[in-house]
Every structure is written in C-alpha cells, then in structure tokens.
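Minutes, project check-in
Item: structure for the 250-residue chain
Input as provided by the requester:
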Amino acid sequence: MKIDSANPADLSAQIAAAIRDAIVEGRLIVDERLPSEAELSEQFAVSRPTVREALKRLAAQSLIRTQRGATGGAFVNRISFEEAYAQQITTSTLLLSMNAVSFETACEARFCLERACAALSAQRRTADHLATMRAEIHRQGQPGLTDEAFCASDVALHRALVDGAGNPVLSYQLAGAVEAMQPLMNMITFTARDRARIVELHTAITDALEAVDADAVTNALAALELETQALAQSVFMARSNKSERAAPAS
C-alpha cells in the first residue's frame, strides 16, 4: 500500500483509499487485523494523527472495526447489506439534491427499478411482506394522518414490495430509489395527491402480489408512475402560474 506524499490531496484520505483498495481487492481479508498505528505511520511516512484520521474515515464507511484490549486493534469488518443501506440512501439523496436531476428523470428511474422486482416479488414475497403492505394501506386510509406520516407509510409499503423479491443485492440497490427518491417525490406531490387513488393503486399492487400475478404488479406500478408524474406536472404548473402572476409588469 502506497501514497503519493507529493500529492496535495489530504494524506489521511490517500491512506484511507489505499487501505480500502486493499480490502476491496482481497489483499486484506475479513477479520484480518490491520497493522498498528505506529506501523502504518512508518509504512506511509506520516504522523500517527494522520493515520488515526484515516482509520476514522474507514470506520465511518463500516470498512473496519476497532477492538480494545491486549488482542485489540483495527480489523477488516464484515459488511452486511443492511448496514450499507444508510450510506446508499445518503449518497442517492445528495446526488439528487446537488445535481439538479429533474423530477421526471428521478421518477422514471425509481419506477423502472421497482418494476424490475415485480416478477421476483410476485414469486417470493412472504406472508409477512403482504401483511406489512396491508397494514400500511390501512394506515394510509386513516383520517387525520399527516402528510409526513403518509409519506413514511408509502416508503414502508414499497420497501416491503422490493424486499419481497428476496434478493439482498436488489434491496440494497433500490434503497436509494425507494428511501431517497420516493420521499423527495412525495414531498413535491403530496399537496395535489388524491390519497384515495394512491390507496387504490397500492391495494392493486398488493392484491396482484398475493395472486402471484407479476404482470398485474407491473401494470399497477406503471399506473402509479403515471399518477405521480401527472401530480408533479400539476404542481409545477401551479407554481409557474403563481410566479408569473407575482412577477412585476415590465
């Protein structure tokens, strides 16, 4: 593992990247103990505080864990998909908010990805997945439910649909689509949303899953995408008209 000391980039970031690459490439394996801070300091020709900062970066990414005691130190961590969800969601949220991705693009991507789970979920969903979706549908029909609570319930229902595919790689990849994209889309459209229509579509999706009808799941998701896109267009048009009325006459 090497770094370029002449590179103006943060040395701790370079060290973290070098160790991360060694883990990804299999040169450092799961549960292997990393060299001590003193050894890493000598290896990279940097101060121990710089090494310590690099290790903090790796720990923040769940790539390593630290243990105290005589047999302690820093060890290569075994990462689960569940533990990586939060990073995937955070990254997706930042990308959407910082890169001016259009609503249409985000919506298209989110539903395309979810439809990819339809056939697998129809075949593999469990009674627990269906029960979760039914419970969220019931919750969404409750009077007095806040917009924020409705959005959270929406996410929980679609999370169960995705997890019903029984594929942890898909669940991880769609964590950003469902738990980052969907709340952003919900917050844009909830002012124009017909809750009864959304509940109707959610019920159609759940009924189709229970009937092991992948085509019906796909069709219901397509209808939900059209509904979402139409709601967004009405919201954007209303905002545009409001801005035009508020603009001073030239």
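Outcome recorded: The two ends are 64 Å apart (CA to CA).
No further action items on this chain.
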